[in-house]
Amino acid sequence: MIVLLSVRPGTLESTMTEDLSPAERYAAARRRAAEQATALAGFREMYDFGLDPFQIEACQALEAGKGVLVAAPTGSGKTIVGEFAVHLALQQGRKCFYTTPIKALSNQKYADLCRRYGSGKVGLLTGDNSLNSEAPVVVMTTEVLRNMLYAGSQTLLGLGYVVMDEVHYLSDRFRGAVWEEVIIHLPESVTLVSLSATVSNAEEFGDWLDTVRGDTEVIVSEHRPVPLFQHVLAGRRMYDLFEEGEGHRKAVNPDLTRMARMEASRPSLQDRRRGRAMREADRERERRQRSRIWTPSRPEVIERLDAEGLLPAITFIFSRAACEAAVQQCLYAGLRLNDEAARERVRALVEERTAAIPAEDLHVLGYYEWLEGLERGIAAHHAGMLPTFKEVVEELFVRGLVKAVFATETLALGINMPARSVVLEKLVKWNGEQHADITPGEYTQLTGRAGRRGIDVEGHAVVLWQRAMNPDHLAGLAGTRTYPLRSSFKPSYNMAVNLVEQFGRHRSRELLETSFAQFQADRSVVGISRQVQRNEEGLDGYKASMTCHLGDFTEYARLRRELKDRETDLARQGAVQRRAEAAVALEKLKPGDVIHVPTGKFAGLALVLDPGLPAGRSNGHRGLEHHDGPRPLVLTAERQVKRLAAIDFPVPVEPLERMRIPKSFNPRSPQSRRDLASALRTKAGHIPAERHRKRRSQAADDREIARLRTALRAHPCHGCDEREDHARWAERYHRLLRDTKQLEHRIEGRTNTIARTFDRIVALLTELDYLRGDEVTEHGKRLARLYGELDLLASECLRERVWEGLGPAELAACVSALVYEARVSDDAMAPKLPSGKAKAALGEMVRIWGRLDALEEDFRINQSEGVGQREPDLGFAWAAYMWASGKGLDEVLREAEMPAGDFVRWCKQVIDVLGQISAAAPVEDSSVARNARKAVDGLLRGVVAYSSVG
């Protein structure tokens, strides 16, 4: 795309214009005049830097009335397109909603837009903040917009544009469905601006947006405005990950490959203990390697980056405790990254931002240790921190007063904290279930923070050397710049009643089938459908090849197949019966029995030392028990002591003789084995092995087999000269038919999956009288106002008046069970609960959940698929009760055993649900609504009240 800008005399553009013909100069002037008349021209003058081509293209599409999907790397400036949508809305006298995935980002965007347009024109709506909500521009979390759409809020009137920042969040398995709900339910008159990280299937996502939203332009830019260089830090040396190969192709640095190979070949401590001698030269080489290859400590990394001029830096550590420990390690090492003037500026800003925090709480929150780190230019950043503390760290970092931040991956979720360098300690993280390698998408998101536009010439991603590191694997992560966007959309109970109330069941079902989840499932079916079509063509060919002039060969092939299947079944049954008989015989063996092992490597005479019975069957003998059938330990006539398995006994075995095993017998002593084996040969060497007669086959007496054989011989095709040739084609036909049916079953499983889940949810809600056909009952209307993972449980608790008669603090304790989820499940100890009515109510909530869980199982609603009600977690009930009762922060945090940031976040979520309950509670049960409001007042104090984000 060529973009013509205004031309100044004496510039290259004016020189080029002078070379044009009069007609061409006139046309160029017309184009310039037209461009100057656009909204984009005025918007560009608001910035002191030029826009990139992808930004211009997206803005032009927006001004032309199209929706846009912009997929570009982190830090590339895609939010400029969102700000142009704000500019257009204000110019046209319409509203613009700017949505973000997290409250911290909403607060940051609100502050940015207030600086540009003034606080009178910009509002903020998050779960716990409502500022100027009727302003023409409102920043909000995506969930707030979803709730407004379902409630039919008057605030939606006049809405012209919606910006969905970080729209790739719809892949999030917990919250991603909200993004799709908003996209599907927004009025057609609203223009949608979707801003995404670089994803590999942007065109697919754009096709879906085109389907559900109308004309949508997809703009993809993989260009980073600040180039990113990848490094590995090992010992004192910083290695480039890539070096230029032939034809400008990037190749992995051979030094790193050599180091990895040397580490892999280094003898382990176990090898050395086994006595593998190392030559002096090998030892010397290993000493040299060790002197330059090690994982540097955290203070060493910061010192090295400082020396190289690579600060400010964000070091990603996938553990909150490790982030705090890293700061302490740097303090103990004496690191100071700020001079005295910077220290004074830091202290002034911190004291200003924390002035509202009571003095008695500062000590509890670790304020003084935190401040010492900030004054030295070092800080941690993670979800466990008090939100106010996190905001201060972010502000100081942007101002250049904090130069080293140790953060968890939550910092990478869009908060504007770019750095010159990003450090990754490890390429493995805990994903909630196990330690797993980070994905290329996660690597891209994390390292995308490196390189500040307009400040840095280049950004740097540094990975610390770890034992067993694979440079090729790292190169794969660094080289994969994109990752696919996968829908996590699933219907919920709240969604179902809201949809049915607005659109009825049939229309709701159709709406859900327009989801991105179904769009992706249907696309995946296309390839399978093509394979089915090819298979069907092949089946026609096979059918023609097996045609017999004497009769229906398909029928004859069916008889042959039935006969083969019957013979196979009988043979399998016979084998199972023989194994069972052999196992029974083995279980009867006792120590001292002389047997003949019928087959295997140790076939022949043997003495049973230990019958090795299955667990739970002692047979009067206490020996080693096995879970996979009897495994007798025997002494063979050749003096070997071996434990045999069922495979060594295909037929039942009977004792030939008995022998006494001396108490002094030691199976590890060669002399003991020799003496006992000699006695065995003397005692039973002359006894011949019992010969087992081969049984008459079951097939010989089976009536079904006899019938099938008679039918085969009587069939006309049996006498065909080309019978076996036809049979080979028939066998191919049968195999391909079986494969085709499996593919068709896969197609059936993938099509209409969302709608089928919706049908099950509607059936369950009908059973519970939330729905009656297309009518939403009073119970259903209450459920429509309850948002959250345990929406149905909350509604049932209101319905059964479980919370009636509870005080505000007791109600807060009960509601906490609807939102809280422990980071790590701990079944070892029951959580501490408030006594009296609250404890009884919590027990009743668990009972109701058990009933709903059983009902979900009946209706085939599966929690593993992200649908349904998880068990309420009572782990925060005591903390919520204490805080709502007015207890001090020190006492509550000590009892709760959780960081202040987590405590504040859970309190905010409890407050959010209490607000929903106060609005949804039945009128006849006004005490619950009244106490819910009182509980909000009890919780919204101290650290919870002065934390602006949660």
Describe the model.
By secondary structure, the chain is α/β, with parallel strands linked by helices. It is built from 36 helices and 26 strands. The chain has an 8-stranded mixed sheet, sandwiched between helices. A 7-stranded mixed sheet has the order 10-9-19-16-13-15-14, sandwiched between helices. A 5-stranded antiparallel sheet has the order 23-22-21-20-24, with helices on one face.
- What strand order characterises the main sheet? 4-3-5-2-6-7-1-8
Structural class: alpha/beta
Number of helices: 36
Query: Residue ranges: pLDDT <50 for 5 or more in a row?
Result: 1-17, 269-278, 615-627
Distance between the termini: 43 Å
Q: Roughly what fraction of the amino acids lie in strands?
A: 5-15%
Tertiary shape: globular
Mean pLDDT: 81
Please provide the count of β strands: 26
Percent of residues in helices comes to 40-55%
Gyration radius from CA atoms, angstroms: 37 Å
- Major beta sheet, specifics? 8 strands, mixed
